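hi! just following up on the protien thing from before. the input was this:
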Amino acid sequence: MTPLIITLFVVAGIVLLIAVGYLNHVAEGKKVERARGLVELNDRLRRCSELSETFPGQLMTPALKLLLVRLELNVVKRLLALEKRNNPNLQERQAELEALVAQGDAITVSNPASPIQTEAKAKDVRFLLEAMHGQVTRAAHDGFLQTAEAKHWIREIRNLLVLLHIEFFNNLGQHAMSQEQPGQARLAFERGVQYLKNQPEPAPWKAHLQAMERQLAKANSMVLDTIAPTEDDNNELTEGLRVVDADAEWKKKAIYD
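and the predicted 3d structure came back as:
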């Protein structure tokens, strides 16, 4: 065997080792990417399901419910394609979601109403809206939602955020009124009025703003009634004012007599 042939064998062996190493690296990279994709899709599946099931019923509409079901179905299909094996649970869920999507606008909204009466509850719902925004944005990035549809739903989510604040400030004010705390009620309604006035597009919220202003006027009137002295008040301040008035009257008589 000539030195040339030996050299060729050595070179071929080195090339083969490099090729094997490269292929192993590619295969390992695909495994890591697949595992990362499974983790991400499972997290999105959990979020979509949570949004669809726990979002407050008073803010949920059939159109929004249908969107959330479609987003969840898209994730389920991508998971099934990525797993490349039978997953009875996912397949069953896919069938359920497809049946719901087939209902279209007639889809049933079974979410129970969940009044927003505390700041903690308001924050929880706001987090749900932020998660919803993230899911819509990601679905648009993946090409599942067209740009126009994604923009529509982002606007709707912003509107839901405004409705969330309206309900929160109104409930807060009404609760304070029922507890005979007009000062606290006035503060809540003032915050609501200010929030609505600060909206970049105030026109859609004109009726809500007027209603909130009426509540504010009512609370303010109750505050004034609470602090106004009555005719038969005999406290020190009232007595002091009477003495001052009498003294002033006496001085007038002394001057003009």
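Helices lie at 3-54, 62-83, 88-102, 119-142, 147-178, 182-197, 206-227, 236-256.
Residues 222 and 228 are 10 Å apart (CA to CA).
cheers
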